[in-house]
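Support reply, case 0932

Customer input (verbatim):
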Amino acid sequence: MSRQRTVGDILLEARAPYTHMDEDDSRLFYSTMNALLVYANNRLNVVSPQRLRARPGDPCMLYENGGRVSEELWKHRSLVDDFVRENPLGLSERQLEAARPWRHALRDMFTVVDADADRAIYMNQDRLFVVGASQDPADSHVHHIPSLMLLTLVPFKGGIVTSGITLHLSPKPHPWAVPLIARQAAELAMRPLVSTANDLLLYASGVSDDENRVTPRFQREVDESFATGAIA
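Our regenerated output:
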């Protein structure tokens, strides 16, 4: 008689269809995301344009207040449609094709339940998501397993990656919460994993534009962190 697969088996076998950006993909992704953040800032007036700067030596990666703009952008996903249609910064068709599905990015609170260099597995309230590595290893921003993060997942090259911003909401759960997290992960592992770009598009298309999946408590903490400069 064959052994029934456990949640550990499922997590161990989970693979990301896209992971580890090469130099060309990294340039494509971050230059496009950079342009989108600049556009979003111009539309939403989050910070003065002079405060949105590129990392020295790498103009594709915004760091000065980039997180602040990103936080507002993904609350207004419809801006992606305007960005692609208007193309105010003269992006290439390849860049626009990369950005177009970001209309259905998923901003949510996720608990990381497993991670290695190639992929991280995040859990929200009703599914498990397999997220590939970007420039850095997939586990490089994971401080503890399990832990709670605010992430935006975006489709890219047939797989799923993060938008580049990770906000740690609860770095380490209380001991009493660990069995509850394990139980929820085991239940959700029985559902199909969200691992491909199409999986994410299908799931996120069911999330309304005005739905904030961050609880009021954690949203206040995020807002206060940005206001005090603890997060750029």
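We compared this against your earlier run and they match. Two observations from our side: Residues 23-44 form the longest helix (22 residues). The chain has eight helices and eight strands. Please reopen the case if you see a mismatch on your end.
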